[in-house]
Amino acid sequence: IQCHIRQQQQAFHQQLLSCLSQTRAGPPRPLQLEV
Questions:
Q1: Where are the domains of the chain?
Q2: Could you name the domain of life of the organism this protein comes from (predicted)?
Q3: How far is CA 2 from CA 8, 31, 34, in A?
């Protein structure tokens, strides 16, 4: 179960990083960190 949680956290972290890089590259838009 811990491994599964770790995988989910990694995927979420990658999503966050891609979102941040997109926001930096593209026009400024409101960031939604709430799920």
A1: 1-29
A2: Eukaryota
A3: 10, 29, 23
